[in-house]
Amino acid sequence: MAAQRIRFIAVSARERFSRLARLGAIGVLTRMTAVLLPSATVVSADDHWAFRPLGTVSVPAVSGAGPIDNPIDGFILTKLAERGLTISPPVEPRALLRRAAFDLTGLPPTPEEIAAFEADASATAWSETLDRLLASPHFGERWGRHWLDQAGYVDVLGGDNDAGTIKFGENKWLYRDYVVASFNADKPFDRFLTEQLAGDELVDWRSAADFTPSMRELLIATGFLRVSADDTDEHELNTLDIRYGVLHRTTEIVVTNLLGLTIGCAKCHDHKFEPITQRDYYRFEALLQPALNPHQWLQPRDRQLAALPPAAKADAERTNAELDQQIAAAKAQIESVKQACAERLRESRFASLPEPIRADTKAALAAGVEKRTEVQRYLAEKFQALAKISPEEVAAGLNAEEKDKIGGYERQIAEQNGRKRTWPHWQVVYDVGPPTPTCLLRRGNHLAPGSEVAPGFPHVLCAGNSGDLERDANGNGSAGATSGRRLALAHWLTAPGSPAASLVARVWVNRVWQHLFGRGIVETSDNFGLTGSPPTHPELLDWLATRLIADGWQLKPLVKQIMLSSTYRQMSVERQPDAPRIDPDNRLLWRQRLRRLESETIRDAILAASGRLDRSVGGPPVPLVPQPDGSFTIKPEQAADRFRKTIYLLMRRNYHPTLLAVFDQPVLTTNCTRRDSSAVVLQSLTMLNDDFVVEESAALAARVSANAGASWDERIDMAFRLTLGRRPADDETAWCRETVERDAALVRAARPEMPVEQASLEALSRLCQTLVNSSEFLYLR
Amino acid sequence: MRATVPLPYSPPNLSRRELLQASGLGLGTLVLDYLLARNEARAADGGPAFRGTPRARSVIMLVQNGGPSQMDLFDPKPELTRQSGKTMTVETFQKGNSDKLMASPLEFRRYGECGMEISSLLPNLGSVADDLCLVRSMFSEHNNHTEGLVLLNTGKIFPGRPALGSWVSYALGTENDSLPAYIVLRDPEGYNTSGTLLWQNGWLPAEYRGTEVATQGAPVLNLSPRQPVAAELRRGQLDVLARLNERHRLDYPHESELEARIRNYELAARMQLAAGALLDLSTETAETQRLYGLDRPETAGYGLRCLMARRLVESGVRFIQVFPPVKPQSQPWDAHSNVKTENEAICGKCDQPSAALIKDLKRRGLLEDTLVIWSGEFGRLPVSQNGSGRDHNRNAFSLLLAGGGARGGYVHGATDEVGYQAAIDRVSVHDLHATVLHLLGLDHRGLTYYHHGSDESLTDARVTRASIVKDLLA
Fold it and tell me: Residue B67: left if φ>0, alpha if ψ -120 to 50, beta else—which one?
């Protein structure tokens, strides 16, 4: 069976070759050869580089390259040397610091930090700078944001189809803060995964008397599995197919995120190009099914977990029920006092009726409408107003004693209402009941269940074992009434030396590399399968993965090691004349890649330049209100939060603030393992005309005016340092001076009443906007 | 050929200069953005994505979301009238359905020389019946609006894939270098159901996302600043910017993205002029404005969008999506409570402008190569809901095509006797997509994009068995 599959792959690769050949696309072919050959030469799926366990990798020695103190450079230089290339010289310190600060904190360095770094000639300056940046609380925001992308996190629960409908998940953002805190604490990645997949199975929270902070953290971590769009809160959509959709999407997100495999195809049939069977798909899904069981479905409102343990919650609910009873009784007492008062008022009114009809009228009004005699109907109709006493009349008619009584009950009610317990909710997962059988679904159709499958792991990563999960619950240290399947998954994904853990480590270090170099060693960072692109530096990838595990799965040492390398520190400017011809796409890293800032970083960098950035960490998302024109505003009552970092603005799936949307903020229908970096015209229009950019440019101009000297040159100098992190060249100063002088004069000519200083400010504000529009601002040199 | 080479990853970083050199070497139009790639250049090159002679050069898709009621508007069912009140079991979606068949409370009339039978609520569309290709045997896959709309626009019920308009602009580019190839005209009051999901580029490059153009206020968000900037000031600003960007670019002669960014500022300036001119209706005669119903409040909004669509086609825009009014509800054809009054209201808003567009295109000689699609996401049930309304029905709906090589005066397919299910000559949404691409001279199997390890296509014909519906072709 495996042999057949592999043959199929080989044929398909050949077909692709011949199709390309027919097109005569020789240039493209050359570039694709590297991609195609590995799958064409695979003999057995088990032999695929990504599925092998990590072995020992020796660091290559590079002859004639001088001493290499960072193994990473050894790997890179070896490959470059084979093509007659080498790495480029180091980038100038100010650009290096700017690059590193954005990479580690998502924020630019201040002009003072740049000056200090440029002045520090010590050998340890770079290493110490990295330590400082790695220790910044913004490190967790920056790398947490990367993780939230690949996990597919948004602040909303549903598919977010309609601009005006925001299904906000109560406290869902606690997961975002958990991620940020985990990265700041450099939580080992194996532990991080275990908490997110199975935090609820690590502790017996169901029988806890109280949720300890660590228990709370473990439960909130499972928000990781609450990222799929779930619209089953709508009655019509709480159907089996939609529920299965949530489970399928969750499975697929977890697999692309952690294993870098695209398994969606295997939902309906054995994967055509990858060694993933349909059985693999459903076995894997069975690991999650006890938590997201379509046959024991919980709508989002019911799935969210009360932030207090079940026993305490039952207690609290009992207390509340008792209080409700007492409150109801007190209300009844108040009512009866009022009734008595109303009765007294009624009696006194009846007293005004002529005596002969008094008794008859009372009887008529007391009689049922249906049973009244004709006379009674007449009387009732004529005098019904008499019997009606309005609440206001009652209030006015209460005597002192009655008022006292009511006051007493009301105080009691208020006191009892105050004693009622309320509690927040968390968006988490937990097994909703004992597992039910999982069946393979023919053609992915839940109405056509096939044979039952046991929970287990993709066979290709099981090194010849069955991959069946041997037993549920308690065999693996899971705590409480839970199947333990997700904990078993976490163990399987992180067991040292296993093919699965090797793949997990490779996928993760590859993403780390991608974030620091703009492209992974495996370019298809979401696809490590046979159809993905092969690693440009397979030994380096394995070395990094081995290193990660050896470092106790900690991220910061790995990042530091990479950033210490000459490979990272080299300039991005093209300085090797032959290199573009030999390696046009710079796959071998003969220069650092020119990288554009991501959407959030652009907004944050503008705020950092204007000096208005609110650097506070964590908390509920800042709500955004959609406007009919497609823009978003922040509610006036939240105006104080409008300068918060972008990670704290409400994160939706489909509707992003314009500035973010045009700069490729992903539409998170599932997850995103690699951001696009497009250059579309709406970016230019937004940077020129968007209110935010215009306002922040004005704020930046005001900052510059307040802090720089009065001369244009001094102001231009500061504006450059705050935006581009460097001083302007003399000719640049001249261009800018000429423009601002002319602009200020034009402004004054149009509005002679304007004070000179204000006209200058306007001209300066336009210059500041020009600087944030520049490519240099948007790219890491 | 960009559209046919199954690139394993994003296009290589080639500069404009390199591309021009490469094209001399037979790489053809492996071009990075549609501004460089004109239709002529691509079509001349041929290749698997291009097959046959294109009948249409552009597409206007009049999205009629909510689920227009086929048995009340397009698909007369005498048998439903006869059996009204009888019991029938159907697949329902919402609560409030009875199991009793309900005759249409609306009348049908014969229109045109072809004698096409459609509702008397649609006299204007009736007046162009001889240009209409009415498909009565459409069916969808899901009973929820979002899934249905996402299917109609992207070919699958789950979001995340490129819209039809993205595929078309990816394959054919634009003929106007001042405007985006794919434009969305929605109600300035807000988004229809599923909003922006319906013009996403999915995993196609971002330039193929639909661009929203508003018919009032600023035509494109951020086309101009809230506080006007004097032209001289803006010129000075762009001048310095161009100098800084050019200096930066010189360090990176092979980064095409930097060139694109520089060009985008030029394009932005052109777009300001072009988009501004689009809103200037002074060149339209009073008669034309009346034709679209701009003189009446109920038709003015959607009418203006239809008129804009014609102007955009004239300007060489490739694909235009037009949306109906969002008030009083964002899915205006969703007649759950009263098919008579609800359809009277929405037909009163949409009938005249839709028909005006077809008439106007025709008299200007544009209909010939402009394909107009009028369609909702699904149909409605033959049983009653909430008294005199109807619930969603994925099993049957009707749609209209006009111009662009579609067969006028023709009725295709049929539903069962009560209009519950498409029965004869059934047409899937995938078949529709295959047919639309065919009319544009594109092969739905050949138009692919390499993503996640496979050649993705709009119709995914291997799974959906999509095929061209030849009967719909003129």
Answer: left
